[in-house]
Amino acid sequence: MRIAICDDDLNEQKQIEEALRGWDPTKSAEKFVSGTSLLEAAKKAPQIDIVFLDIYMPGENGIDTAKALQKISPDTGIVFVTFSREHAVDAFSLYAVHYLIKPVTTEGIIESFRRLTESRTRYRERIALKVGRDRHTVFLDQIFLLESDNHAVNVSLVDGRRLKVHMSFSEMEQKMNKNFLRINRGILVNMDYIVQMGTDTCVLQNGIHLPITIRQRTAIRSIYDNYVFDRLSRQKDFKEG
Predict the structure, then answer these.
(1) What are phi and psi of 29, to 5 degrees?
(2) What is the pTM of this model?
(3) Residue range 137-160: average pLDDT?
């Protein structure tokens, strides 16, 4: 198993590794002082199985490093390590394995590996999309917006890609799961990425404002409210775990 620790503080690195060995004395970790060096190492085989990633490093944000890491190695389990819970919701949206508050304990390490095992047994839905002559396989949870474009659909991904798929909007909608909500004609959003559902406007995490159809806004609001209730329940378990 390939384990990594990314923290600019060498004492913190040592403390995390001691907690790791408290769980299993045979385990060791590759250590990095910057997100840049971690990302370079992640490009090499075999993949990194799990990384304990500090959120605050000089000139870097661990959340941004995690997003870049997911592009390079989407199956690497990410455990955020920090002194506060300020970015817990961001970690949740990135499907982090765990969120540990310093000082890291052996109990936190044990729980991280338990969650890593659980996440690998959980099925992540994916879809194959044909774009021109190319085929792209993407996870549904990495799609945040679908928009009708004549006889095609523009698929927006969290990694910044925008794929134009020649498929009817209704056909594409049928391939999505229950996390996706049609808020207007030709607009389908992943509710994981909604930050505000107003009376006539839906706001996504990247700041995009989208119009909500007037005729269905009561039903749309009800569906979203039920979703938020379920998500907050899961988030509470995530923070207390």
Answers:
(1) -130, 150
(2) 0.56
(3) 91
